[in-house]
Amino acid sequence: MNILLWILQVLLALHTTVGALWKLSNSEQTLPSLSAIPHGVWQAMSVLELLCSLGLIVPAISRRLAVLAPIAAACIASEMLIFSALHVHSGNAKHGQMVYWLVVAAICAFIDYGRFVLKPLARPSVT
Q: pLDDT at residue 93 above 80?
């Protein structure tokens, strides 16, 4: 289970880093359902995403920082749920993007559950 959690954390960190870089180079107006987000908040979200990406990976280096992984996953899940709520609120009839955000949020929730309950704050083992 620990290996699966680390694989998911690395993939989520890569996904979040790409999303943060995309946010830095694109406006919130690119996605009509997210146009309610102010530009400053949009830019701040990209910085938060980069920090969350680091928080998912840093526990591999220092066990003392292991609590960062589930916190980072919870932040990313919260962002995905906010995006989904904005999408519903916008009245957009196409729900493909919302399903994507909800899947990412579910993966984050699994990482949280895994790190808090199944395999609490475990570092990858080197064998």
A: no
Residue 68: pLDDT over 90: yes
> How far from 49 is each of 3, 42, 93, 119, CA to CA, in Å?
23, 11, 27, 24
Amino acid letter, 72? A
CA distance 90 to 84: 10
Q: Considering Cα of 72, then 74, then 79, then 80, what sign does the dihedral take? A: positive
Examine the pLDDT at 120 and tell me if it is beyond 70: no
Dihedral class, residue 121 (left if φ above 0, else alpha if ψ from -120 to 50, else beta): left
Whole-angstrom distance, CA of residue 73 vs CA of residue 56: 7
* Alpha-carbon span 90 to 35, nearest angstrom: 9
Q: Each residue of 14-61: pLDDT tens digit?
A: 999 999 999 888 877 777 778 888 888 989 999 999 999 999 999 989
Judge whether 47 and 20 are in contact, CB under 8 Å: yes
Residue carrying the six token digits 């908040």: 41
**Do residues 104 and 56 lie in contact, with contact meaning Cβ atoms separated by under 8 Å?**
no
Q: Rounded to an integer, what distance in angstroms lies between the CA atom of residue 14 and that of residue 5?
A: 14
